[in-house]
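Input record, target 12 of the design panel.
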């Protein structure tokens, strides 16, 4: 007589192994974001391209991956985004920040967003678009530069040097000594005031204001930012937005048991 239970265990084991491979490829897509070629992905996961392609087709069919028809590169799909957002919703900073950013957006009618520190740097995890006919699109999942964005500079001001060192080293290679000194002065000002206003740094014609959010133990857990067109978010409106944003950041921090570190 044969042992039916042992025979049944083989397909189950194969399914588990297949699931593990599929999850590994999905994680690799996230780490190689925003998009990657089949060959690069195969090298990254150290598997034959033909095998990776089979798994990618399954991920595409299930909505966890997408293929750009213009480049044939692969990226995370809508289903992966939904899973990621469900996980992010468990973070206190997102749950607490969302209603505050909605209220801020309604008050000043400018696009507001929350970014957290991800494995590639400042990463947008929540956006409230302005209600006007023309809005500036800031996408969830966007990774912002450290030294060339208002959001990034606030992270650089309050995170430990060890956390930002790798990204800072990459971005600073394109900057002169004089520019780096200007950035250092900005960082000191951010640490003193708790808010940073910038005009056209990341994108010409776009102004931004950013403030840090702290949790218990004064641990930096995110940065909230207001962004708008320079033609609308003028000096006076930007100053008003900065005041409102700072109040919002302090409210979120207080609800999370944190506050701005005193200088």
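The sequence produced for target 12 reads:
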């Amino acid at each position: 007589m044969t042992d039916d239970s042992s025979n049944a265990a083989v397909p189950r084991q194969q399914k588990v192994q297949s699931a593990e491979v599929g999850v590994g490829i999905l994680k690799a897509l996230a780490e190689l974001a925003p998009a990657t070629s089949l060959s690069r992905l195969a090298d990254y996961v150290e598997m034959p391209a033909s095998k990776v392609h089979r798994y990618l087709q399954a991920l595409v069919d299930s909505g966890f991956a997408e293929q750009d028809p213009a480049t044939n590169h692969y990226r995370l799909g809508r289903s992966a985004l939904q899973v990621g957002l469900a996980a992010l919703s468990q973070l206190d900073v997102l749950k607490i920040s969302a209603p505050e950013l909605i209220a801020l957006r309604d008050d000043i009618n400018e696009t507001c967003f929350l970014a957290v520190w991800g494995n590639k740097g400042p990463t947008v995890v929540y956006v409230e678009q302005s209600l006007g006919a023309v809005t500036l699109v800031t996408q969830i999942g966007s990774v912002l530069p450290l030294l060339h964005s208002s959001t990034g500079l606030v992270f650089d001001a309050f995170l430990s040097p060890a956390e930002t060192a790798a990204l800072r080293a990459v971005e600073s290679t394109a900057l002169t000594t004089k520019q780096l000194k200007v950035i250092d002065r900005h960082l000191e000002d951010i640490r003193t005031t708790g808010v940073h206003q910038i005009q056209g740094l990341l994108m010409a014609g776009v102004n931004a204001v950013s403030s840090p959010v702290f949790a218990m133990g004064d641990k930096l857990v995110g940065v909230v930012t207001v962004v708008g067109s320079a033609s609308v978010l003028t000096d006076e409106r930007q100053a008003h937005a900065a005041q409102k944003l700072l109040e919002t950041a302090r409210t979120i921090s207080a609800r999370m048991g944190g506050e701005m570190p005193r200088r």
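Residues 4-82 form a domain with the Arc Repressor Mutant, subunit A fold (CATH 1.10.10.10).
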